[in-house]
Amino acid sequence: MEMTGGSDSEGYGAQSHYGFKNDSHETRGRRPRLKRRLTGPILAISVIVAAAATGCRQSHPNRINVALSGAAVNASFRSGTQAGSPWPMVGADAKRNGRGIGEGATGFIKWQFETGNSIYSGPVISADDTVYFGSTDGNIYAVDGHTGKLKWAYPTGSPVESSGAIGADGTLYIGCDNDNLYALNSKTGIVRWTFPCASQIWSSPAIGPHGTVYIASLDGKLRAIDGVNGRQRWSYKTGKPIESSAAIGANGLVYIGSNDHQLYAIHTRSGRLAWSFKTNGKVIATPAIGDNGTVYVGSGGGRFYALDGNTGRMKWSFPVNYAIYAGAAITPGETVLLVASQFYGLVSKSGELDWVHEASLYSSPYGAPVVAANGMVYFSGNRLHAINGSTHKQIWTFPPQGTIENTPAIGADGTIYFGCDDNDLYAISRRPIEPKPSAKSLKPQHNAS
Prior knowledge:
By secondary structure, the chain is mainly beta. It is built from two helices and 35 strands. The strands form eight sheets. A five-stranded mixed beta sheet has the order 1-15-14-13-12, with no helix packed on it. The protein has a five-stranded antiparallel beta sheet with strand order 2-3-34-33-32, with no helix packed on it.
């Protein structure tokens, strides 16, 4: 069953009550992903099980406090995903709110794992602390989160730019540039089923409460796939390619952006359109959902929106004047953590920009911010930035040898995992673990307090 959208309807518009200038930066466009990325070889690695060590190297009174409570974190919308997993999908859960249960790292490198090409896939973490991710070398990897040793690798033959999601039964779902959505046994790397999406998959899967997998692709369709047998339940076609990933609300709606400038809200059971909202640019960013059901999303036209999740009515918006391609993170107090190309900052639930730190993160960052249980906030770009959520001071930065173009993941022990276009997956620890001698060993740069 296929539904169709992508009309030229203006939705609820994109006007701001701030009255600031809304400069469109749509000419920036999306990054030239395939043209720039496919410079290295596509590795053909067999499914490798067990210990393959190759690749393992070892205050202002009005400020918003973004510290999380354990109860608030545990209340995250994670049904449908693996029990005990600290980070079963990008953004931590189906709401994509970016809240971790770990206390957050202190900036010391734990290990590095080297792949054969750039990593744009964001890591996800299972209950046994296995880290899963893809690489543009064509492989899907499972790496021990404690040691950095390879457990298995599955060769797809094409770049893997999608991030994974771990189902309640332990199935790992992940998309690929060969148009396929894969369902793998997360313990062994053996394929359970594949679903052909007819176009490249840069989107990352979301898993609903009943185990349905929602995945989008560059043919402009959002699909609902049965997580057990891989059969399509429905599809909804937008007007242009989809790079955004879906977020699922507790109200039975799934939200997805499209390059046709619209954010769509679709009924999870039927695939029918509930509403759509037209922004001022491509919606590549993944929407994030607050505890009160508000949907937050940025546009390639440089504006950030807060929408009523049930009706699509705009609550507020403001211009950022930089293209927004990354999703946001949302604290229990409904503080929004926002990142764009030249700054990161906090926005109150009323839409007031509370704090901004200007920094050259990357021309158009794709990795969303994340927040640890102790309130530490992490932004990625040309380095990983750690910000104290209470004082808003930058505590440390970690400089890899490339750019971070994915959303970091927070482990149960506070370890931060992220991939980089220098081909490596990094694990940053809470404790000062001295890495094994390596030409690529790097140390964090701590700010003076």
